[in-house]
Amino acid sequence: METRLPLFPVTTKIESGKLTIAGCDLGELAREHGTPLYLYDRAELDRPASLYRRYMSESWPGNWSVTYAGKAFLCGWIARWACEQGFHVDCTGLGEIAIAVHAGVPREQVLVHGVNKSDEDLLAAFEHAGTIVVDNLSELKRIVRLRETSKFPIPNLWIRLLPGLAVDTHTYTQTGHSESKFGLGPQDFVQAVAFCRENKLPFNGIHFHQGSQFHDPAPLGPAIDSALDLALELGMGDEWHLSPGGGWGVSYHEDDLPHPSIETYVHFVTTKVREGVLARGLSTPHLHVEPGRSLVARAGVALYRVGTVKQSAGRRWVLIDGGMADNPRHALYGARYSALTVEQRQGGTLQPVWVAGPFCESGDVIIENLPMGDIHEDDLLAVPVCGAYHLSMSSNYNGARRPAALLLENGRAKMILARETTQHLLARET
Ligand SMILES: Cc1ncc(COP(=O)(O)O)c(C=O)c1O
Question: b/e string for 13-43 if b means 16 or more Cβ within 10 A?
């Protein structure tokens, strides 16, 4: 089972036969806060953040920024943490903007995404954002219309390029292929920029995002070339921004270890852009990267209580108290997870288990065919690499109350998101 430990945060240990994270006793946390419970290890958040800073500053000769993709996991604490790291915060729409503003993220550090932004989203972005990444021409027309009524200046506008090139990942998380709903192909992009210039809109950046959870940076190469060709055609001038998005992956299962290296990713992007800029005689852009998962996924561990262990048609089912309502990733993409029991019993033979939740869907399974030793009802099960696209994608299916999240540091736990209660559910009743 030691092979699974590298999936967990750096501070994870087995002490007196029990799994601990950041010196915290997980059994005590479960008793105090209930389960399912999401645990974020502070050290494992800070580690990749400092790697991004280090490799960007070492390998990019000009200005650079890291933008935390808030869609991976957003709450006030994490937005403030991203700011403290010197990062920008990417918000998709009014709701995420409200969380960032409530957390005190300064306007110049808020970047707004969205493929079909509403008037409300755009007006909130005018008021609170430093940059809007525009998806299409209709959005630009809407911005011109709203400019008449808003008392706030229009933030910097970047436009999202659809490079027509996929990265190697699940089809549902590819976004750069030509059939994707996101962004504009190069010809439409040129027209959109002409519209900006005619209407005196502050266009100054090219953005693309090819997809999420990829481990091979090579497909970014031709997309960067396409963005730089476009920059040349558009005459981007001395101060311009280039963002090849985010999407760098992590390993969810011991079979996929080691984790993809942040250094490999950053060096690939910076080298490719530097060479491309030189070859075209372009001025050095302000370079952005936009990671979500590779910053927060490994820091997060989901803690569940086992309610039932049963055998059915040759399968050993371990039924836990959470599932697709807090982790829809297996149901959505067939994502493969691993797990360890908090109590590490010695001996016992490994047998495959299927770990499933309490929800009324056969698809409510989070782990299939995972070798596990002894596991009993009332045990605690810790699932690693749960920090991204879990709570942010969680639902109230079957009346589920979304779990609490705790931040663990130096033997102490601090609540950063409260558990929902039935009162929260009933608050929407009319
Ligand atoms: C525009 C954009 N940027 C960045 C990201 C972050 O991706 P990841 O969390 O895989 O790094 C996403 C994720 O979907 C995205 O849509």
Answer: eeeeeebbbbebbbeebbeebebbbbbbbbe
pTM of the predicted model, to two decimals?
A: 0.96
- The burial of 382, by beta-carbon neighbours within 10 Å (0-12 exposed, 13-18 middle, 19 or more buried), is given as buried
Q: Name all domains of the chain by residue range, CATH numbers in brackets.
A: 2-34+299-426 (2.40.37.10), 43-295 (3.20.20.10)
Structure tokens at 142: 């809407």
SS3 192: helix
Give pLDDT tens digits for 316-368: 999 999 999 999 999 999 999 999 999 998 777 899 999 999 999 999 999 99
d(C-alpha 146, C-alpha 150), whole Å: 6
Instruction: Count the Cβ atoms, other than its own, within 10 Å of residue 277.
Output: 21
Query: 133 alpha carbon to ligand 1 midpoint, in Å?
Result: 13
Contact between 201 and 157 (Cβ < 8 Å): yes
Ligand 1 nearest atom to the CA of residue 248, by list position? 11
Q: How many whole angstroms from 361 Cα to the centroid of ligand 1?
A: 28
Pocket test for ligand 1, best of 67, 71, 113, 293 (most atoms within 8 A of CB): 71
CA of 389, closest atom in ligand 1? 9
Q: What is the pLDDT of residue 180?
A: 84
The catalytic residue among 24, 91, 196, 360 is 360
Report whether residue 288 contacts ligand 1, using a CB cutoff of 6 Å: no
Q: Is 91 a catalytic residue?
A: no
- Rounded Cα distance between 180 and 241, Å, is 23
Indicate if ligand 1 lies below 6 Å from the C-beta of 259: no
CA of 222 to the centre of ligand 1 (A): 19
Mean pLDDT value of segment 307-311: 97
Q: The tokens 């992956």 sit on which residue?
A: 249
Give the residue among 20, 18, 67, 55 at the shortest CA–CA distance from 41.
Answer: 20
Torsion (CA) 72, 76, 77, 79 in degrees, nearest 10: 60
In this predicted structure, what is the pLDDT of residue 14? 95
213: Cβ below 6 Å to ligand 1? yes
Where does the pLDDT of residue 135 fall: very low under 50, low under 70, confident under 90, or very high at 90 and above? very high
Identify the residue whose C-alpha is closest to ligand 1 atom 9.
292
Can you tell me the distance from the alpha carbon of 9 to that of 25, in angstroms, rounded to the nearest whole number?
14
**Pocket lining: 160 vs ligand 1, CB cutoff 6 Å:** no
User: What spacing in Å lies between the alpha carbon of 248 and ligand 1's midpoint?
Assistant: 9
